[in-house]
Design brief:
Helix content is 77%, strand content 0%. The protein is built from twelve helices and no strands. The longest helix is centred in the middle third of the chain and has 39 residues. By secondary structure, it is mostly helical.
Length: 362
């Protein structure tokens, strides 16, 4: 029986972590579904939703939603679908921020100097991320492969491959083994906090950016400020922090001769590094594209600027947007089979990692 608030020793076992993650999956499922409905219903009453609609649809197209009607999407992307997507993005921002905040004390104080309560907060933060992934994997799968929620709740297979098969599967497979074997490693603390916090910042900034009125000079400048914020956030977390941290952790695995973890972690680190490099390129491309743009003076210039700035870019959905673009390319070139095999290989690696960690905890 786990007490409340939970003690570190009570959380530091495989059964306790699995039970806590499932409990948090239920918690986030209830909280986010309620929040999503309230935000979705409130959007039409806002003065800015009309401006945010097209950028939201643009981002949905990046995730595989069709621009034209199909059998699965007879009305392509409807306004209701866009509201649902935007509302869920807002929920993700909050969830990622809360989850990262639970881990900050350990990152700030250090594992050895932290109390049991602070260590428990870190473990709870990682399990909060796993819980969210479990909830989202279930609801995304239901909406992809069944008629759950009705026609407007449908999700493209491209999105499922990226969000569930690639992102959530890796996160769910890695967190608990890391908690069992390497909860004390600074690299783990820094990576978990930085990636979740960066995603929260970029998602939130992207959503807010969609609401701006480009006919106003102030909003035009604010848009550029958001692009700079996203660029700095991505360069700091995906380059400055990521590479030293990644190399340090891999060196530790080599030094400790942790062969199983080494092979699995190396594969995962290479995949995440590729995503990070694509994201950095996207951020630099967006900065080069938008920052030199002068404030439009004529009607034609305003129309051109609005058309360009209403398109969502990869930095508005860090990591997932880039993966979605790659997945779409694989679909169009009939190479999805190879991508699925890569995902299966990754799952096998992380399964062996989980088995080894489970053995250690026993």
């Amino acid at each position: 029986m786990i007490s409340f608030p939970p003690q570190y020793d009570e959380l530091a076992t495989l059964p306790a972590m699995v039970a806590t993650a499932l409990g948090l999956a239920l918690f986030w499922g209830v909280v986010l579904e309620i929040a999503k409905k309230r935000i979705r219903d409130a959007l039409p009453a806002t003065e800015w939703w009309g401006r945010a609609l097209e950028p939201t649809k643009s981002m949905m197209k990046n995730f595989g939603y069709p621009s034209q009607p199909t059998d699965r999407f007879p009305k392509a992307i409807t306004e209701g679908m866009a509201r649902d997507f935007f509302a869920f993005l807002c929920g993700i921002c909050s969830q990622h921020f809360v989850t990262a905040a639970l881990m900050v004390p350990v990152l700030w104080i250090g594992w050895d100097e932290s109390s049991d309560a602070v260590k428990s907060l870190f473990i709870l933060g990682t399990l909060s991320d796993v819980g969210f992934d479990v909830y989202d994997a279930i609801q995304t799968s239901l909406r992809t492969f069944t008629n759950f929620g009705g026609p407007e709740a449908a999700i493209p297979i491209d999105t499922w491959v990226v969000v569930v098969a690639m992102h959530h599967t890796m996160a769910m497979s890695l967190c608990i083994p890391m908690n069992l074997s390497y909860p004390h490693r600074y690299e783990y603390h820094q990576t978990a906090v930085s990636l979740l916090m960066a995603a929260s910042i970029c998602y939130a900034a992207g959503c807010w950016k969609f609401t701006l009125n480009f006919e106003k000079r102030r909003d035009f400048i604010l848009y550029k400020a958001v692009v700079v914020l996203q660029l700095v956030t991505i360069l700091y977390t995906r380059l400055y922090l990521w590479f030293p941290t990644m190399l340090s952790f891999r060196a530790h695995l080599v030094e400790m001769n942790e062969t199983t973890f080494l092979y699995g972690a190396t594969f995962m680190l290479v995949i995440f590094t590729l995503f990070n490099l694509i994201l950095v390129a996207d951020a630099i491309k967006a900065a080069v594209k938008y920052l030199p743009k002068p404030f439009p003076k004529t009607k034609k210039e305003r129309q051109e600027s609005e058309l360009m700035m209403r398109r969502a870019s990869g930095i508005d959905a860090p990591g997932l947007g880039q993966a979605a673009e790659l997945t779409k390319a694989l679909f169009h070139r009939r190479k999805l089979k190879g991508a699925v095999h890569s995902v299966i290989a990754a799952r096998r690696m992380t399964s062996s990692m989980s088995a080894k960690s489970g053995g250690k905890s026993d």
